[in-house]
Amino acid sequence: MPAPLIPKEEVLERLTAAFRAHGYEGASLARLSEATGLGRASLYHYFPGGKRDMAAAVLEFVGAHFERLVLAPLGEDGPIGPRLNRMILGLDEFYMRGEAACVWDLFGIGRAGEAFRDELRQSVDHVCAALAEALGRAGVPTAIAKARAEDTVVAFQGALVVARARGDRSVFERVLAELPGRLLADMPPAGG
Amino acid sequence: MPAPLIPKEEVLERLTAAFRAHGYEGASLARLSEATGLGRASLYHYFPGGKRDMAAAVLEFVGAHFERLVLAPLGEDGPIGPRLNRMILGLDEFYMRGEAACVWDLFGIGRAGEAFRDELRQSVDHVCAALAEALGRAGVPTAIAKARAEDTVVAFQGALVVARARGDRSVFERVLAELPGRLLADMPPAGG
DNA sequence: GTCTATAAGCAGATAGAC
DNA sequence: GTCTATCTGCTTATAGAC
After folding, report:
1. Do B161 and A108 make contact, defined as CB atoms within 8 angstroms?
2. For A16-56, how does the pLDDT look when each residue is reduced to its tens digit (9 = 90+)?
3. Distance B151 CA to C8 C1' (A)
4. Whole-structure pTM value
């Protein structure tokens, strides 16, 4: 019973990269096989449901990754300013400085969009809620916090699309840099 | 020599709808054929280069459509406020109140992203420049106008992604409604 | 857990009749 | 300008040996 050639976490990392590069429809089993170094049959051993299974696993994987890199720093103790800065560093790393597409975007298109409708909605809502909660704790009124949380997600998603269409990541970095000012507008500098 | 069953403009409209619904990879010839009501061979008669040709035509078609609905009202004479409002009405119509995906997003992914790299970059740059020019004419300093123009595109692109992932267009409408305030921040109400 | 082989179907694209 | 028929290659998925 030979051990796996690479740990399952690395398989998921490589599947994620392949889906991000080609989209759901464009990520053929041939490409997924090449990206992971596993034969088709091995992929079906890990993911009996085939490509759909792989995409679902990727969705869960990037969700956990996002939680660790972006939401966890935001939820720690201490003043809101440094926590936002750590969140932004996390976003920058998660999206590879603007080069990586977001699976919310990729998996929202076509066949995948129907298959993962519920997962996508829950995921976006969860992130918006976590952001709004952090802003609320920092003293931003609830309704405003909710809108600003949503605006934050809108901003980095839009920046990713524009960066990709332009072939220039600079807009992503600029949008991230301007997030704290927008999120904490009209707040005292030490607020939270 | 029988006349075409439907005018070419309608063919392009239906192709656009199909690409928007399924993405580039997901829009198979079978689907494009079904969407237009034309057989495969007829599609190849209109677009000898096949699917790539159809996508290029769609890109040009939506570009002209965007020009007419969004940029033209912005470039008219008169105060900036009403012109921005007409632009927003145009955006709302162009993106079907937030339901339609943007081809900048769809065609930026995978194989299409490589094929249409230059067209996408030019298209985004053109729209950003037109927006920046309008803001500049209204008295917004050039550097700020450029950033705000880019932010506008980022905002509605991000709103489209979030709206689709959430299955709820309301964020798109909210983002559009807030555009004038963001674009004309720190400007006298009659500016322009 | 990986491999080779293969099935069954769909992809994009073309030929030639009408 | 549309049609039917067809081609080649790639798609997802499975079977069974090791």
Report:
1. yes
2. 999 999 999 999 999 999 999 999 999 999 999 999 999 99
3. 49
4. 0.97
